[in-house]
User: What shape does this take?
Amino acid sequence: MANHTLSYKRAKEEKDWEMMLSIEKMFANSKTYFAFTKLEDIKAFLGKEISYLVFLNNEPVGEAAYELKDDGKKAYISTLVVVPEYQGKGIATKIFNKIIKEIIDKPAVENVELITHPKNNAALVIYLKNGFEIVEWQDNPFGDGEPRLKLRKIISR
Ligand SMILES: CC(C)(COP(=O)(O)OP(=O)(O)OC[C@H]1O[C@@H](n2cnc3c(N)ncnc32)[C@H](O)[C@@H]1OP(=O)(O)O)[C@@H](O)C(=O)NCCC(=O)NCCS
Assistant: This one.
């Protein structure tokens, strides 16, 4: 994996949302990830965010998205996904590093938040290694009967 370069496409067009939906559907039965199942939901939620499709050798291998809130003072990372056959190769780590750098490069951002399942070990490894701290337990925030953890990273400048 080390020598492969990922490329990023900002999702904007209908075919981008359709590709994202096909990635999301791979996680339809996941207990630790609440996947989108409808095109109109992806467009409504991720269409207002900064959303990327991620490619490796022209193959779609993942997606990521974040939004800026409070006049750009807060960032919320809503999406980090790697398709199953490409997992365990460090791809999510690379995607997350790119997203975090992009966020930190915005001078107004004071903190970054995200939400993940307490049993999502791979995601938690990435977030904790990047200096995020667990700040809140949430019982059932997405209505899927599963708990979540809120994590936050304070940006020190
Ligand atoms: C979470 C996810 C993005 C991780 O993708 P990935 O490309 O496999 O992640 P990486 O290969 O970069 O691995 C990240 C770290 O987790 C570790 N890891 C991977 N699977 C693990 C597991 N089951 N248990 C513990 N650690 C694990 C890796 O060893 C790596 O740690 P390291 O940097 O110390 O080597 C991927 O599993 C996924 O898309 N899941 C479904 C969607 C999802 O849950 N997204 C997160 C929502 S908040």
In short: The mean pLDDT is 96. The first strand starts at residue 6 and ends at 10. Strands lie at 6-10, 50-56, 59-69, 74-82, 111-116, 133-138, 148-154.
